[in-house]
Write a structure and sequence with these properties.
With about 170 residues, the chain is α+β, with helices and mostly antiparallel strands. About 50% of the residues lie in helices and about 15% in strands. A hairpin with a 2-residue loop joins strand 3 and strand 4.
């Protein structure tokens, strides 16, 4: 799953440092899964996997009693800083737990990180080469004053326009 995640290119929009720094095998897989599911995170976003789906995806050593497996996975999820809370809806057969749906809510810090990473990914995709240098779109957080930001943003837009016009001109020659 992690290899597929990296090969798909989605790793660019994730917090790869937290995935690599995970202390356990299950946390690594859960973080990769959450980064995929919350790639376009918003404050009201939730992820609602079933217990059996999570057990399968992260190769969790399932206990013979679903109740214990549910408790362990819930505890693991709640220990992650990326998650603000987990709500569990049990599916019962009589008094026995057959499965459960976990409503996972991301933390505000995680949402902010994902949004920033998405912006930076989009920024690198829009980069172009002009005058033998790479031109990246200026971001407001890089500047101390808004006037400097707006001046550099205007210069960037002019350079991009020249590049696009040059490409158009080459097409029709």
């Amino acid at each position: 799953m992690i290899t597929n995640y990296i090969q798909s290119g989605d790793w660019k929009a994730s917090d790869s440092a937290s995935i690599v720094a995970s202390k356990s095998y299950y946390l690594i897989k859960l973080r990769a899964l959450l980064n995929l599911k919350f790639r376009y995170a918003s404050e009201k976003a939730t992820y609602n996997p079933s217990l059996s789906y999570l057990v399968e995806k992260i190769n969790f050593n399932e206990h013979k009693e679903k109740r214990i497996t549910l408790q362990k996975i819930t505890k693991l999820l709640e220990s992650m800083p990326e998650i603000s809370r987990v709500e569990v809806k049990r599916k019962l057969e009589g008094r026995r737990i057959v499965d459960a749906i976990l409503n996972i809510y991301p933390s505000k810090a995680f949402i902010t990180t994902m949004i920033e990473n998405n912006q930076l990914t989009k920024r690198t995709e829009k980069a172009f080469i002009a005058d033998d240098s790479i031109k990246l779109e200026p971001m407001p957080f890089e500047y101390h004053s808004s006037a400097t930001f707006h001046r550099d943003k205007a210069a960037y837009n002019i350079e991009k326009g020249k590049m696009l016009f040059g490409n158009k001109k080459k097409l029709f020659q």
